[in-house]
Amino acid sequence: ESLDQGLQKTKEGFLSKISKAIAGKNTVDEEVLDNLEEALVSADVGVDTTVRIIDRIEQRVAKDKYMGTGELNRILQEEIENILVEAPSAVSYTFDGEMPAKPYIILVVGVNGVGKTTTIGKLAYNFKKAGKNVLLGAADTFRAAAVDQLTIWSERVGVPIVKQEMGSDPAAVAFDTAQSAMSRGSDVVIIDTAGRLHNKAHLMDELNKIKRVLQKFVPFAPHEVLLVLDGSTGQNALEQAKHFTAATDVTALAITKLDGTAKGGVVLAIADQFKIPVKFIGVGEKMEDLLVFDKHEFVDSLFS
Ligand code: GDP
């Protein structure tokens, strides 16, 4: 799906809330600001980020100055865009560009059900399409379904996968995967990990162990720790981001399931509140439905 299609529900909710908030108003008074604040919070932009946006509008617009709805809308769009522009950007690679390392190793983290496996499949598809040799590693050995799902994706996309039986040591799978990547000359390695959050120390230990194993083969690996978040859970996604960033050095975010939800405003909250770039967004279940996140396009799409 395209960005516009993918964000359809969010757009409808967002725009209708905003236009209600400023309907019939031609000055920026307390009431307008309160309405806007309410509209943004209910569009899942999150309280902190909403307050920042409202503060900026307040600073920018003289109180009670005459202003048409169109102009107010434009100022809101600009301030939302400014918030995103100040958030960290992800420009370290593109699918068809040269990778910063070979093999380039991506460790994927996130709780079950957020779309982790699907995102890995979509990434594999994009890298493969760009002519790269991709290898998958099934280090989420905790659930049989996770390995099965990843195997299905590897077949669908046509990329090899390294796996062991369920319950085996994730670090051992990481070892096999890295070894296989070296002998195959893989360009990109994507490793799935178990997303148990109930025990932060355990999660931390497991990820650290995987990192140590990878570094036996490739210095500075993993080059990316990609946290997958389910955008349709709104503020829950923010909570998960807090937990994972506390447990490991997450370097990039993927926000999935933005199609079919009106909670896409959470992307603004996540981009604003974590010093970690949003790199990808998921807008459907198919392999083509992963988009590289572009701040300007995203805001344009919300307001168009
Ligand atoms: P995992 O448990 O985190 O690995 O989650 P899965 O990758 O198995 O995805 C869980 C469900 O969400 C599946 O039914 C996927 O098809 C679906 N899914 C994943 N990403 C997206 C997305 O961007 N949009 C939609 N609509 N569904 C998605």
Automatic annotation (TrEMBL):
The gene is ftsY. Signal peptide: none annotated. Part of the signal recognition particle protein translocation system, which is composed of SRP and FtsY. PANTHER family: SIGNAL RECOGNITION PARTICLE RECEPTOR SUBUNIT ALPHA (PTHR43134:SF1). Pfam families: SRP54, SRP54_N. Belongs to the GTP-binding SRP family. FtsY subfamily. It is found in: Cell membrane; Cytoplasm. One of its GO terms (cellular component) is plasma membrane. Its main location: membrane. It is a peripheral membrane protein. Residues 277-290 form the SRP54-type proteins GTP-binding domain. It comes from the Bacteria. It is an enzyme of class 3 (hydrolase). GTP binds at residues 110-117, 192-196, 256-259. It comes from Niabella ginsenosidivorans. Keywords: Cell membrane, Cytoplasm, GTP-binding, Hydrolase, Membrane, Nucleotide-binding, Receptor. InterPro entries: AAA+_ATPase (IPR003593), P-loop_NTPase (IPR027417), Signal_recog_particl_SRP54_hlx (IPR013822), SR_rcpt_FtsY (IPR004390), SRP/SRP_N (IPR036225), SRP54_GTPase_dom (IPR000897), SRP54_N_sf (IPR042101). It catalyses: GTP + H2O = GDP + phosphate + H(+). SMART domains: AAA (SM00382), SRP54 (SM00962), SRP54_N (SM00963). SUPFAM superfamilies: Domain of the SRP/SRP receptor G-proteins, P-loop containing nucleoside triphosphate hydrolases. The lineage of its organism: Bacteria, Pseudomonadati, Bacteroidota, Chitinophagia, Chitinophagales. One of its GO terms (molecular function) is signal recognition particle binding. Its EC number is 3.6.5.4. Involved in targeting and insertion of nascent membrane proteins into the cytoplasmic membrane. Acts as a receptor for the complex formed by the signal recognition particle (SRP) and the ribosome-nascent chain (RNC). This is Signal recognition particle receptor FtsY. One of its GO terms (biological process) is SRP-dependent cotranslational protein targeting to membrane.
